Recover the amino acids of this structure.
């Protein structure tokens, strides 16, 4: 059964068929959310929100683009909204830390069990760098790099999701990589000092 | 090869996408330059971090959770009954009338209330006394 057939049936009232869509696209949505949030629990919650939003607006799906493109758009927008909210929350938390009202939130990391303690420490530290470097990128560069690195999408697919040209996506990815290089190099220099 | 050029080509170098001549140059530079070698290590680590996040699996019950959420939402929609205009008007009219009645009751109850007086009543025999007819005490003394 194709996506369009399933969607048609769901709109007709067979909402149990939505499970097929969820099973088909849930890994893709989760990966995208992970690329933006870097936290498993938050990504799980956001994936749920994305599918609920998709269900609510399913009748608005015109079928001009593939369902995957449509759900990617919802996932990217939801992730960007969430990161905007989290950065505001983080600002408040930092403010609270300065005035001693709150403890710093620990980010959750998933480290493989077979890593040595030293490697775990390096990896933890590096996760924080990568997270900070990605978060400091402008939203369109971040979107392009997440879709490219986490979802392994082609520039053509990214262009379709971002509603722009392939050339623009290529430029965004190049700029994002240059920015990440710069940030990592600055971190490296800071570490040396 | 200088550091700037080397760092720019690092990703393509790691993926083996560079022409053979440039691959050799980058490799040689990485052997000589500690900064670029460290930078390369940082990139390798970054890719490891991304790879690890990519390999993470979502909650195995996520599909069930999503479907339960949708079911709950759909049932909410089904149990929702639209309110007619008549009901809306009647409801606001009823609230207005109740408020007006409450105010009116307050005013009436306020007017019916008589405060207790602490002033002593003058006995009737005292009230009929003709003060003018009384003899002046001064006259008696003189």
């Amino acid at each position: 059964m194709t996506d369009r057939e399933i969607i048609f049936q769901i709109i007709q009232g067979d909402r149990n068929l939505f499970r097929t869509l969820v099973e088909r696209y849930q890994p893709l949505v989760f990966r995208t959310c992970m690329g933006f949030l870097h936290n498993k629990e938050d990504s799980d919650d956001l994936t749920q929100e994305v599918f609920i939003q998709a269900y609510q607006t399913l009748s608005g799906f015109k079928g001009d683009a593939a369902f995957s493109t449509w759900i990617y758009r919802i996932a990217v927008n939801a992730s960007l909204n969430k990161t905007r909210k989290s950065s505001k929350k983080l600002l408040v938390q930092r403010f609270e830390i300065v005035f001693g009202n709150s403890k710093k939130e620990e980010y959750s990391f998933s480290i493989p069990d077979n890593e040595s303690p030293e490697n775990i420490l390096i990896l933890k530290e590096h996760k924080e760098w990568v997270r900070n470097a990605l978060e400091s990128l402008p939203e369109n560069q971040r979107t392009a790099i997440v879709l490219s690195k986490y979802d392994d999408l082609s520039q053509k697919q990214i262009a379709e999701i971002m509603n722009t040209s392939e050339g623009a996506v290529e430029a965004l990815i190049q700029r994002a990589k240059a920015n990440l290089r710069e940030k990592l190099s600055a971190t490296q220099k800071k570490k040396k000092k | 090869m200088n550091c700037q050029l080397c760092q720019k080509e690092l990703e393509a170098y790691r993926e083996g996408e560079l022409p053979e001549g440039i691959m050799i140059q980058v490799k040689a530079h990485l052997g000589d330059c500690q900064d670029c070698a460290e930078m390369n290590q940082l990139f390798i680590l970054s890719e490891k971090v991304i790879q690890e996040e990519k390999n993470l699996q979502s909650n195995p019950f996520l599909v069930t959770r999503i479907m339960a959420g949708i079911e709950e939402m759909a049932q909410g929609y089904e149990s929702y009954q639209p309110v007619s205009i008549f009901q809306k008007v009647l409801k606001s009219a009823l609230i207005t009338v109740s408020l007006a009645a409450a105010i009116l009751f307050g005013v009436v109850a306020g007017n019916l209330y008589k405060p207790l007086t602490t002033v002593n009543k003058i006995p009737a025999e005292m009230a009929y006394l003709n003060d003018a007819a009384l003899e002046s005490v001064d006259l008696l003394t003189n």
Summary: Chain B touches chain A at residues 7-8, 11, 35, 38-39, 42-43, 45-46, 48-50, 52-54, 56, 58-59, 62-63, 65-67, 69-71, 73-74 (CB under 8 Å). The two ends of chain B are 140 Å apart (CA to CA). DSSP finds seven helices and no strands in chain B.
